[in-house]
Amino acid sequence: MEIMELAAELGKKIKEDDRIKALNAAQEAYENDKALQAEIQEYNTQSEALSTEYKKETPDKEFIKIIETRIHELYTSIMGNENMIKFTKAQDDVNAFMNEVNNEITYQITGERPCTHDCSTCHGCH
Questions:
Q1: CA 75 – CA 114 distance, rounded (Å)
Q2: Which of 87, 95, 92 is nearest to 29 (CA)?
Q3: Taking the model in full, what pTM does it have?
Q4: Closest residue by Cα to residue 89 from 15, 40, 27
Q5: What is the per-residue pLDDT across 72-104, written as a single tens digit (0 to 9) for each?
Q6: What span, in angstroms and rounded, lies between the C-alpha atoms of 33 and 25?
Q7: 3-state secondary structure of 58
Q8: How far apart are CA 91 and CA 29, in angstroms?
Q9: Tally: H helices and E strands in the chain
Q10: What is the DSSP string of 3-54?
């Protein structure tokens, strides 16, 4: 098999992994959560307003305080949303999985395990 054929097969196998399926389900729930999406949109709008105010020659400190308070409220609500939590966790799980896959490929090419920053795995820092 050619390398690109093998890569395509690997991609298909990865797509079947439960972590990928969980990410897809979490992403769908995240995208379909209208309240969450409204808060994210408002957060972005408030952030832009804050940035604009900071750039003014004489920013309105009281206005900045109001916006910062609202941004903090929105951030807390967004990050506490169940769909956001599940989506973030699923993304983290897939990223860790893909790092494992990439590390294995690197090992097969170089014969050396990539540094995990856990010196017990390779004794590289001794």
A1: 36
A2: 87
A3: 0.81
A4: 27
A5: 999 999 999 999 999 999 999 999 999 999 999
A6: 12
A7: coil
A8: 13
A9: 5, 0
A10: HHHHHHHHHHHHHHSHHHHHHHHHHHHHHH-HHHHHHHHHHHHHHHHHHHHH
